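Please describe what follows:
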Amino acid sequence: MSNNNISTPFQVDLSNCAQEPIHIPGFVQPHGVLLALKEPELAILQCSNNTSYLFGVNPEDLLNQPLSNFLETEQLNFLINCLSQENLKFVNPLEFTINFGDQNLYFDVIIHRSNDILVLELEPIFAEKSNTYFKFYHLVKQAISKLQTTSGVVELSEILAQEVKNITGFERVMVYRFDEDWNGIVIAEEKPEYLISYLGLHYPASDIPIQARQLYSQNWLRLIPNADYQPAAILPANNPLTGQPLDLSNSVLRSVSPLHVEYMHNMGVTASMSISIMKNQKLWGLIACHHQSPKYVPYEIRNACEFLGQITSVELSAKEDSEDSEYKIHLKSVYSKLIEYISAGNNFIEGIIQHQPNLLELVDAQGAVVYFEKEYFSIGNTPEKQEIQNLIEWISQNVYEEIFYTNSLSQVYPDAEKFGDIGSGLMALSFSKIQKNYILWFRPEEVQTVNWGGNPNKPVEVMGNGSLRLSPRKSFELWKETVRLKSLSWKSCEVNAALELRNAIIGVVFRKADELAQLNIELERSNNELDAFAYIASHDLKEPLRGIHNYSNFLIEDYGDILNEEGTQKLRTLIRLTQRMEDLIDSLLHFSRLGRVDLSMQQSDINSLVERNLDLLSARIEEMGIEIRIPRPLPTVYCDRVQVGEVFNNLIANAIKYNDKPQKWIEIGYIEAASPIPVTFYVRDNGIGIREKHFEAIFRIFKRLHGPNKYGGGTGAGLTISKKIVERHDGKIWVESTYGEGSTFYFTLRAGD
């Protein structure tokens, strides 16, 4: 069957490919049935039109019927109980036996909610299931063991491809990694000899457009058993409650974009499965599985593969960090030497230019310019003075963050093409936007030959009516491209090294504190040693602590009838104390790790970050009847999204916890300032307030102003952790409060674009 049979109300052409609404196709793949239900009565509002084939019941006979007509009472009650779970993903799949006529039909049932509509997707079970847990355990145990023993990302990917191929039986399994521009490269591949190899080939970002990447970020796994399918339409087309097409973003049966089906046909692929690999909550790559003939993968096998994808995502950060460990040590050594030179001399510029190692080695650049108080100081290969002046003027007008870096300067600053052989790559470090003080590092053009899987430019087809249509590439054979005006990419550890240098120079030059800079070096070393001590000591403490906890439980269980009430009560107190001590140790461990983890800096929309935190705390907010106020949209800042999210979470959670007013409110906002750098955020409440004498003490670890069980308990580490995170972002945090009336916590972050 040709993909021409797959109809869609949305016509994909040259102008709208990136806007194709793939989340609302109006169709599902026909290997399963979709039911959209209204809660709580569980009446069927919509269903896919393939129920006659899989159920023996016409779809019209299902619409507006309660699910109880088709499920036994025991199964219906089980479903209702599952629907009370906070995260429905954790209960999938359910196994149902449905009676239609005289036959019992067995299904895997996957449930989720889509805009308050309950969606059930039923996939037939063609073989009897038994010992599902042990099958799952057997499938993943050996694979996980191999993944954890790998030494780097490539080896990890190779083992991953091997294990997924063994588990699924797909002919080809590839690990596909995205670059900073969302182009992909195949870094590992398992296949039979008769298939052409795609290993090492690049694929353009247009192969997986932005809306597809968003869905891959939401859903760990996507299966297409047969690209030659006849799609099953959802009836009626619009949901009766919403009046809109059903959003299938989280659907496992969601129909495939016609353009993607055509892409699969051009590639000679009939069945495919993809598993997402995430790093720091961002799509890092995919495990792509291909088969030349139709191939259905049972849900338990998909579960095993999804679990492997999640384990890989956890392992990935550690593997990538370990690959750069020696280079990071080198950069730390260069940084320490530069600080030593700066602190010992009267002129910081001499310290970073006239010694070995120098400014270039800090970020592996071939040229650098220091522009300070309208004077130029250069080292290595740099553009001409007038070209630098023009570049600095452009930076001052277009770059607002502390650091800006690109490996293709001419794409954002076309005049850079004139000096591409010297400065195709740029890292710009700002000290003062008003005075235009900068350090600029340059990297030369690195002419590269990129091996693409076919011509990456999608050809435009002229249709019979003269319109233009975008068509997927028809060839995936090796296609070479010479890339010009690009340098080697800047690594995150190099960016962090430059930021650390900025902080040090500000400390020495602008604050006139050479002695303080030297003290900071010693303090950093002491803090690292203290972090290491806290980490080791906490691990060593947890072992005997668990023993005390367990043996106390054993005493109560085995000798409870011998001990008097006082003795039993003392043992229960001991158990509570050991649990509290373990909580304190966990907080100490988390605090110590903060100093060792590199910041993952990126432009972050604080609106979505705060919205996610409020969503996580929604149950407590509703329970306590708290009004959330956000007077105006929050800005974008350059920060570590995860760690800054933890700051907001701690401050909002405290505002919820420490409030005894009948009408409670929390306000989240920021303060307007003449300069956009830095941004001062605040979290304000009308809670119990804090006496002024405690303003500094509350930021000390494990410092609580109330008893251990008052106001919901806690370890007293949240504000200390928040302070460390803010200070690692070169910001500060403080509180203003009136006792009995409320508190406002302020903290600063650098503004983004």
